[in-house]
Amino acid sequence: MFSKFQSTAIAALVGVALTFAGAAKAASLITNGSFEQLSGGIGQIGYNGTSLTGWTNGHDGSGNLGYTFVYSSGSADTTGANGVSGNVKLWGPNDGSANGLPATSPDGGNYIAADGAYQTAPLSQTVTGLTSGAQYTVSFWYAAAQQKGFDGVTTEQWLVSLGGQQLATQVLTNQSHGFTGWQYASLTFTAQSSSQVLSFLSAGTPSGVPPFALLDGVSMTQVVATPEPASIVVLLTGLAAIGVIVRRRQMARAAV
């Protein structure tokens, strides 16, 4: 049998080990980060019944609904998606451009495409369960494309905000009729309250040659400090010491 001290020590060390293990399995705080929970079919979000669970498409300064679309696998350069200004396709292998636009993003299935120079408005979600003062990492896939029927080099990026903080992705330069390929980004914010609005705003140039920023696979997890090597050594030393004590007690009982 262990002494009370030994039992307490084991419990404490096991607790530390479980904490380290749990840090690697943090669940995302985002609802529908892959944009698969869709109602009303693909199209401009908020128009003609198209809606995404957990997300809201905002309005620009003139009150226009954000020119932000959700596409399903393979639809961007085939059937396109309808919005307030008509059907929108992106340049791709199925409509005249060998630019490598794939049917899906690396996250698979549906993804977002937002014009960065026309009726720009944020796509947002209220995130709850935050700890004020704690850091959170927002990760996602993004890319740049261009609307079918237009020509010219464009630039695209996402402006990502949590509450009053705003960070930006790298600016992508997209060739005429092009596609940049999917990129992965991770941005770290500090929470100011237990509930804050997370938003994505497409920013592109120039106006008139629709620069579309693509988005998928949004996740948000709390930053947990990685244990320092010294802490791991202490943990392992403690476990080893307890093992020695247990072994000696077993040997002592065997001798008796």
In short:
The chain has 256 residues and is of the alpha+beta class. 18% of the residues lie in helices and 34% in strands.
Tell me about this structure:
The chain is of the alpha+beta class. The chain folds into two domains: 4-21 and 227-255; 27-222, Jelly Rolls. It is 18% helix and 34% strand. The chain is built from two helices and 16 strands. It has helices at residues 4-23, 229-255, and strands spanning 38-39, 43-44, 51-52, 56-57, 68-71, 81-83, 86-88, 111-115, 123-127, 135-146, 154-162, 165-168, 172-174, 183-190, 196-205, 211-222. The strands form four sheets. A six-stranded antiparallel sheet has the order 2-5-8-16-10-14, with no helix packed on it. Strands 4, 9, 11, 12, 13 and 15 form a six-stranded antiparallel sheet that branches. A two-stranded antiparallel ribbon has the order 1-3. The relative contact order is 0.18.
Report the CATH architecture of the largest domain: Sandwich
Please tell me how large the radius of gyration is: 25 Å
Share in helix: 10-25%
Number of helices: 2
- Give the number of domains: 2
CATH topology of the largest domain: Jelly Rolls
Percent of residues in β-strands: 25-35%
Q: Biggest β-sheet, characterized?
A: 6 strands, antiparallel
Give the helices and strands, then pairings.
Blueprint: H1 4-23, E1 38-39, E2 43-44, E3 51-52, E4 56-57, E5 68-71, E6 81-83, E7 86-88, E8 111-115, E9 123-127, E10 135-146, E11 154-162, E12 165-168, E13 172-174, E14 183-190, E15 196-205, E16 211-222, H2 229-255
Antiparallel strand pairs: 1-3, 2-5, 4-9, 5-8, 6-7, 8-16, 9-15, 10-14, 10-16, 11-12, 11-13, 11-15
Helix pairs in contact: 1-2
